[in-house]
Amino acid sequence: MKRTRYVSAATAVVLMAGGPVAVATAAAADPARTVTAAPAALRVDVTAESASAAALKHYPGVIESLDKDGTVWHVDVISKDGKGHAELQVSASGSVTEQNRDTNGNAAENKALVSAKVTAQQAMKAALAAHPGQVTTVEWDDDGTASWHVEIKGKDGKTWDAQVNPATGKVTQSDSGGDSDDDGDDNN
User: Fold this and answer.
1) DSSP 3-state assignment of 70?
2) Rounded distance, CA 135 to CA 177, Å?
3) How confident is the model at residue 85 (pLDDT cuts 50, 70, 90)?
4) Which of 19, 28, 29, 133 has a CA-to-CA distance to 142 between 20 and 30 Å?
5) How far apart are CA 176 and CA 183, in angstroms?
């Protein structure tokens, strides 16, 4: 009886201090008890739009790239003056962790991105209008003609690649990089 009280009191303290991780630890420590908690309710799969908003709130500027890796979003932000750069991670719950920050970059290298009329967020909206689904990647591509590259996982499970014009927001090219061999690519 005393052991149960001590374990229960210790579990309560650990749960208050440790949150969802502690729930799993407490369940593993006392297999006779079934711990039902709401850690799944605490985890929210953040969309690309939400991840970009959280990143820009943490480090104001212009999104250069946004890429989903499991439940984590990797976001690169360029400062509005083009000299700063931050590498951020946005978790499934929306919390932002700064991985790296540089404040002495070459503004000339980022001039086209910083002055683009269409932002990463607007490029995502345009691509989603052309191909409904979930954005998994947005990247500024300035090799040759500048454009936004947006990848969308469609409701059919196929991945759609779209190029969005940074001046007009028009989806200038899109194709399915889907799961089938017949994706319309002639492999030229």
Assistant:
1) coil
2) 14
3) very high
4) 133
5) 6
